[in-house]
Amino acid sequence: MFGTDTIMSLLMASTRSVNSWDLVVRKEGGMIVFDKRPDSKIDFLSVNENWNEVQISEKEHFNHPSNLASEATCIAQNLSQQLLDKEIDSTDDLWELDEPNPFAEKAAKGMIPASVGYRYRLFNLADTIKLVVRTEVSGFLTRSGERELLHIRAVNEFDSSLSGKVDWRQKLETQSSAVLTTEMKNNSHRLMKYAAQLELAGVDHLRLGFVSRIHPRDHLHHSILLAQRYTSAQQFAQTIGIELKTMWGNLREIIRTIQKLDDGKYILLKEATKPAVTIYRVPPNSFASIGAGVVASVAPPPKPAETGAESAAGAPQPVAAASAASAAAPAPKASEKKDSKKEASDAKAKK
């Protein structure tokens, strides 16, 4: 099985997911590849996904969910670079992994790609499940002469009156637990994905930045209020009230369901507000890229014999469904993980 930490963390945190999303799954000869559609939005961070209040419906409004997602993603990317010390005085300030950034060639001429490291890790989830994941690391810090990997992640406040009425500027220093409790209620899916990404990457530290708009109606300017330290995925998971073994159980359940299917291409669909993930079989060349555009399908709909029964309208019916609420399973032991370092951060994180 192959996938990225973005995709695997999405599956591991699917029990907290409210929004709709989908993944592309290719199964061939016992090999399973998890991928995303070219126009997928899973790289964007959701905002107040678990908040029960009615959100802004005007798409042009800066507080519309899609615009909030773009804002949150931009904040996270900028914070991951802002907390790094890029003054390299010696080789001790640089950690180069085996290969260069695989995305560096796509950077515009004259532009330097963001500092990020990639680790390729192997997990033995079961006798028949071996999972290779490409994970990201933000940087590293040095403690007692030893280099330790670091994740930098962000949570952001856009308007306290729309997010539980807890003003971060007033509460963060004196009542940080109240702020985090509110954030867990509003964005438990995002925080659960952060914990899964920490576990998958095997990093030693997390810096969780609390970022707020300078003014609730100004979505372009922000202040960093606090950077909270966590020293392990386990510590962070306990802080936000989740079990790592439960997340591994979610992932195993979905993988085992896919293993039972015939070879082919599938769409793994999580519908909004529904707790289960549904799997549909699609034509082999579905979601093929043509130039800069994307087409949903470039082949006739599959016959019923290929996908199972079809509706009167010809839409493929689900061939399988995996419950997002699966039994907890123990996490892979450290001895069962194998690292393959591909690219290093070109800066070290500030202590």
Keywords, please?
five-stranded antiparallel β-sheet; single chain; alpha+beta; four-stranded mixed β-sheet; 351 residues
Describe the structure.
It is a single chain. The protein has 351 residues and is an alpha+beta fold. It has one domain (2-253, 327-349). Helix content is 24%, strand content 31%. The two termini are 36 Å apart.
N-to-C span: 36 Å
> How many extended strands?
17
Identify the overall geometry: globular
How are the strands of the largest sheet arranged? 3-2-11-12-15
Number of domains: 1
Question: What class would the helix/strand composition place it in?
Answer: alpha+beta
**Fraction of helical residues:** 10-25%
Poorly predicted ranges (pLDDT <50, ≥5 residues)? 290-314, 334-351
Largest sheet: 5 strands, antiparallel
Supply Rg: 21 Å
Distinct helical segment count: 7
Strand content: 25-35%
The topology string of helices and strands comes to EHEEHEEEEEHHEEHHEEEEHEEE
Estimate the mean pLDDT confidence.
81
Oligomeric state of the chains present here: single chain
